[in-house]
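Worked example

This section walks through a single chain of length 173. The input is the sequence exactly as stored; nothing has been trimmed or padded.
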Amino acid sequence: MSRQTLSARRTRLLTALLLTLVLAACSPRQPAVVDLAPGATVDLQGWKLTVKSVRWLAPDAYRKPSTGCGFLAVEITLENSTGGIRYVMPERQMLLLDPQGSELQPHPAAGVLAAREQGWLVVQGEIGPRQSMAGAVSYEVPLGLSGWRWVFRPRLLGSRVEAVLDLEGLTVQ
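Given that input, the structure is written out below as tokens.
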């Protein structure tokens, strides 16, 4: 075999190896999961999160869920345990996942009901160092909740860890 042939083979082999390493490093990873339970506090990348309750909200004359659905509120306390200002956006960080993994965003009418019925404001905005915010994030969901999960992602843009509350079998008030 000639020197050029060996050099070309090495180059192709190194190129293939490098491409494999780059693709493996860039492939999406499943985030690590921290299990949540109502009443328990978890420490998660500078946040202390407590799910205080999960409850159905009664519709009013102006805000009614779609047929076969209900308004569900997840009451939480969220503390910024870092030394800097942090921001929280429920539509990016607090989601309901259906059994297939599709994301369900917070619902505005359900948020209004949570505020009027329970006095819970939506947990969102700026949270200063060592400060906390209490309130709820509310959704319109199909009745039953079989296979549904509530997820908190500690970062606004992608997280390697997320806190998950399994709603199946949970006693919803």
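What to look for: The first strand starts at residue 32 and ends at 35.
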